[in-house]
């Protein structure tokens, strides 16, 4: 306890331990909700009596709202301080979780509460981290950074496992929202009780009102763009043109209005001047597209492993636990090597190539594959994604002036998570297109299909349809991951067109940026 007392600036040892534990659980909770919901999707589909293309809206919109929240979190923190912002975000998260719990049979309301939940989650991340740093003495802030970074791979590893356990073993996926309501409310209460006597340094004259209006336009436009693809998913963008054109027009009008307000503002929400710095534009684009490949692969793996191969949510969740074994150690090793002068293009390219090889490995199985055989690729995937985030963040921000790097990081994280929302929809559309292609190959009347048709009685059309759909899904599984593998290989080559940052000495601020670049 006496040693712990030397770390804290204000709190007693007991309060300081409780403070660290509470913020850690809060960080864990908001990241968990990004990954735990995925294996539940087939169960949510049954509870809502809606098709999967509708139910995934709750996941895609969650990521979109989470990404947008990164852009307004820092202005709110300037105006109200990190303490108030964090407590308010967890109260909002609690309210959204409770709301979602009561409207599980109404798709539109449920999706709306998932949007609020995602926004609150994104709003909590950056202020929580800076609140943690604020209560550590300066010489010990590296410990806070290390502790914070432990949770960043939860959406890819522990999240699916816990979500699968809740859905299959516990038997009610709604427990995730009930637990989120109680825990986030408890977190807000503990933080308020611990920090009630401490006041943040705030800027009472910060022009938040006009910036909030600008953000509202941007948020509405991004959500409308996401809804364009959500509705497009229902028909693979091949019909419902009146709805799609209407949404697209509203999206374009919203973005145009946002750009006018943003350009005229003395404190713009998005500083487009950042894109004039070398690597930032190209690095952000490559980072987002690569992350969309990774996210799309993980999403479809979790969903199709259940719907196509017939495994439970618990089994598919357990497959993702091995990712946690190597992901964080390789991430820390990469940060250390970059700090000591390594060209970040080396780990970035190696990581993307390893992800591509992993997807190719997954596509090579004769399906349906046994569960035990699929564990080894997951260990390899954990090692592959470990260096990805820190190296790509360093490449994108390496030439941005130090006084602009935090704003650039907010934009980078926001764009990446908005891309993750689109990845949910794009991967579903891609899967449907590939499955339709396989279905057409099966049902084309030619001699190679004759035996397949003759093996069924003319009075068993349903059984024939079910069998063809099952085999088409198994073939689509491998085709889908082969395409992702080619995309990953291409990305690993494109990394070398980026300019490496200037050689630098170890910089604590860069470590903070790399850790925040792994969110969420």
UniProtKB/TrEMBL annotation:
GO CC annotation, single: membrane
Segments traversing the membrane: 16-40, 52-72, 84-109, 115-135, 147-169, 175-196, 208-229, 244-260, 280-303, 315-334, 346-363, 375-397, 480-499
Keyword Transport: yes
Keywords attached to this entry: Membrane, Transmembrane, Transmembrane helix, Transport
Localisation: Membrane
Entry-linked Pfam families: MFS_1
The protein, known as: Putative multidrug resistance protein EmrY
Membrane topology: Multi-pass membrane protein
GO molecular function, one term: transmembrane transporter activity
Major facilitator superfamily (MFS) profile domain segment(s): 19-503
